[in-house]
Amino acid sequence: MIIDAQALTESAAYKLLIGSILPRPIAWVSTLSRQGVANLAPISFFTAVGRRPPKISLSLQPRSDGTSLKDTFTNIRDTGEFVVNMATVPDANAVHDSAHEYDPEEDEFTVLGIGKAACEVVSVPRIASAPIAYECRLDRIIPVSGTENVVWGEILRFHIRDDLYLERGRIDTGALSPVGRLAAEYTYVENTFTTPLSAEALTAVQGTRMRRLDGKAADFSPIDTPLWSPSGSTRSD
Questions:
Q1: Which of 5, 27, 78, 179 has the fewest CB atoms lying closer than 10 Å?
Q2: pTM above 0.90?
Q3: What region does 151 belong to: left with phi over 0, alpha with psi -120 to 50, or beta?
């Protein structure tokens, strides 16, 4: 199958991107509006873009109406600050629920019952239960289209749970159980390896499907339901 990218709608291109760039790490982003209202959103178009100083990027699509800018973007644009919190299995349900489109006047920490923790140099709260968080200052905004933007942020402070910070500045990644995105679904990292793998190990996984944790059919996808939208937001039942 060869698909002409220029012939695709935004929705069709989004489906192909999220179904083939995976697993995608989730930036669970907390922000504050100019009025001081806290917002939370999971952003899976997220990666590191620099080391000195350390920088990350977020790619932000519009809300599910296809035209309105997300609160995450407007808050970062207006205040110049945000926090990226790590999404892990214990918080998986809250991560998903924070993808709903709440009114800008609603504090999503309060609505979702998520604990706040203070940051050191930005006014935005971080998520108390997140094992790792980055305090970020807006570095630049790169417009992609009228409603899509890439945000670069400079990391000012790393918050790392004490038991995860090992000798020589290494993080105990095996203790994190990070949650990632697979198309419109989630996955968590439960294995690790170095190469080369033995022939037996390679043969054992060849042709196998991912194991589902939710009891749904092997070919289920939220993309085939009315709850999905090509914005990364989650619609209500």
A1: 5
A2: yes
A3: beta
